[in-house]
Structures are given as C-alpha cells and as structure tokens.
Amino acid sequence: MSYGMTRTEAYELVRSRLQNDNLVNHSLASEAVLRAMADRLGEDREKWGLAGLLHDLDSETQPELATHTRETVAILKEKGVDPEIVEAIRLHNPTAWPGEERTTRMQFALAAGETVTGLIIASALVNPEKKLAAVKAKSVKKRYKEKAFARGADREIIAECEKAGIPLAEFCELSLTAMQEIAGEIGL
Description:
Layout: H1 7-17, H2 21-41, H3 45-54, H4 70-78, H5 83-91, H6 105-125, H7 137-145, H8 155-158, H9 161-164, H10 168-181
Helix pairs in contact: 1-3, 2-3, 2-6, 2-10, 3-5, 4-5, 5-6, 6-10, 7-10
C-alpha cells in the first residue's frame, strides 16, 4: 500500500529536518507507540507508524504551539503523503488550528501516543539506571497520576488513548513495551 512516502524516505526526511537527537528519538518512540497501537486496534501499522515518525518535522523551525505543524503539513502535502496521515499530524497540535478538534481514531492515537513518550522517558530518567528496561508499567501509571511529574506530558491528551479504543492502564503498558523494544535505537 502506498502512503506517498516509504518508511525509509520518512526517516531520511526526519533526519534532514531535525538536528536535535532527542527530537529524532522522540519521533522514533512515537512511531513505535503508534505501530503498537495500530496492531492492538487492527489498524494499518505502517500508516500509523509514519504518522508517529513524521509528526514533529517542524519542531525546530516552528517551536511555538501557535505555528507548530503548519510547516510539516505543507511539506507532507507537497510530497503527496496520505491525507489521513497529514490530518492526524495537523491535529496533534490543535493550538495551531483554532476551533478544530480531533475526531478520528488515528488522530486521538497520534496525540496520545506522542505525548505518552515524554512521560515514559521521564520515568526512565529518574531511575538510577536511566534505562527503559528498568521502568515498569505500573510506575508509568503511577507517574501519570503525579501532576507535578513530567508536566509537559499533558494527562488529558494521554487519556485520549481511550477515545482511540485502548484503556489507559493497557495503553501505558503497550507504549512502554513498544519503546523498550527500540531502547537501543533511542539510547535508553
């Protein structure tokens, strides 16, 4: 199936647009979580993975929420990327698109999936080992309840996993497992 871009092309685009390795790793983690969500929900893992991988292409050039995703959307449309992927990416930051809201399973999944990666990485970094392997799903769920922990990981957005069709506790475990599977690739 064609999405207007292969995974290899998408990764090359990410590497060409993002110089900060942490942002590249966030994109890879988001891809892994989105693929796992797609598998769990019987959705297209390649398509969902591309959405996770490509969602933050303009995070260095457009770091302000008021404009973040606008450049990414333009780039992906120009390259002929699947409109469903582009729309999910566009709406993972509704601040840039006032009055618009997420409505589809893929849109909710991308928003929740990319946001939970921050909570999971923060959970790893507070461990003495600073490795994803040391993190347990129950500790991610516990950290989710601690509003002062990883403040940037918006709990309301993470909870949108339920709108995508995955209960929160299961989502935390699924996301952690997906990220642990690529821990070496993302340096955790």
